[in-house]
Amino acid sequence: GIQVEQSPPDLILQEGANSTLRCNFSDSVNNLQWFHQNPWGQLINLFYIPSGTKQNGRLSATTVATERYSLLYISSSQTTDSGVYFCAVGEGISNTGNQFYFGTGTSLTVIP
Amino acid sequence: KAGVTQTPRYLIKTRGQQVTLSCSPISGHRSVSWYQQTPGQGLQFLFEYFSETQRNKGNFPGRFSGRQFSNSRSEMNVSTLELGDSALYLCASSLDPNNEQFFGPGTRLTVL
Questions:
Q1: What pLDDT, in 10s, does the model give residues A47-70?
Q2: Which strands form A59-64's sheet, in the order they lie side by side?
Q3: Does B89 contact chain A (CB < 8 Å)?
């Protein structure tokens, strides 16, 4: 299967600071998503970004598929940004179904 | 548009029992996937269904099974429960494998 590595594993930020989370993957993918897991366990969609760059408010993401990595940028962090961020990739081959491979996550703590 | 729903949200069982979890995908989505999340193993793929057919299966023992109905709702069953089956079980739905996946709130299973 595809190996997914996320870094850093843990991150502590002062409120207002910026951060970059990285996701490296070991093979070609057709599907890449970033999620934020809330305290109750639900995975909240942040970006669906198999390639290119997207922005949504203070968050943005870039995937360079040819180099097998994706970055999630959080600017002007707030305490509500705290939680675990997951990167998930999939081959997305229609005939054989899809399977997401998850990284181990980055645990972000934003302190006021 | 209603999101992915999972029932029950919490479940407590004893070793040796069996359990059935349910997932209702977003209306119009035909692909449903199941994942297990534990502190030790992280998020792991169980299986994926599309139009009532299991197309992909993760590396789990045969005690884990599932099915999908004609209305795309899916169930997963775990027989002969073991302590190690205690986990958060997440369901995701998508239009097809190459589209964005949306997760439900999860079912937290505790095996005593």
A1: 999 999 999 999 999 999 999 999
A2: A4-7, A19-25, A69-74, A59-64, A52-56
A3: no
Kindly indicate the confidence band of residue A93, based on its pLDDT and cuts at 50, 70 and 90: low
- Residue A23 amino acid letter: C
- For tokens 């992915």, what's the residue? B4
Token pair in block for residue B105? 């709130």
Chain-centre distance for alpha carbon B60: 13
DSSP, collapsed to helix, strand or coil, labels residue A40 as coil
The burial of A7, by beta-carbon neighbours within 10 Å (0-12 exposed, 13-18 middle, 19 or more buried), is given as middle
A49: nearest CA in chain B?
B100
pLDDT band at B2 (very low <50, low <70, confident <90, very high): confident
- Distance from C-alpha of B63 to C-alpha of B79, rounded to nearest angstrom: 5
Q: Specify the pLDDT at position A56.
A: 97
Q: Is B15 on the interface with A (CB under 8 A)?
A: no
Give which of B80, B87, B105 is closest to B11, Cα–Cα.
B87
The percentage of residues in chain A with a pLDDT greater than 70, rounded to a whole number, is 95
Q: What is the DSSP letter of A50?
A: S
What mean pLDDT is predicted for residues B13-42?
96
8 Å CB contact of A98 and B48: yes
Cβ contact A100–B92 (<8 Å): yes
Whether B74 and B91 have beta carbons less than 8 Å apart is answered as: yes
